[in-house]
Amino acid sequence: CVCVCVCVCVCVCVSGAEARTLVKRDMSASLSAATQDMVEKVKALEMTQTAQTYVEGGKEQFQPLVDKVQAEALKLQEQMKPLTDSLSAQVQPLGEVMEKFFQQMVDQTKALIPAQ
After folding, report:
1. pLDDT for 14-25, tens place per residue?
2. Residue 22 is inside which H or E element, if any?
3. Which residues in 1-22 are b (16+ Cβ under 10 Å) and which e?
């Protein structure tokens, strides 16, 4: 009976040591994975910040050009206004004549259709 008891204790001690080794390995693997995940997140954050810095720098570089183009577009619009007003004034009577012509055609066509 004593001999069996000693064997059981030895097996339990060995199993406990193996369990501790497994726990240490699992903890080490978990810690390593968590550390790697954290490193990747920090790298992603750094890349995002770098990209945002480039975008803001690009905006600053292009803003003077955008302002210049907008000013030129406004000048062009102001220069074209008299031309477009003149063209509109010339085309409007033609539009009225065409409208009257089509109305006459509709009226004449209606007159040709027999009443039902």
Report:
1. 455 565 666 667
2. helix 2-112
3. eeeeeeeeeeeeeeeeeeeeee
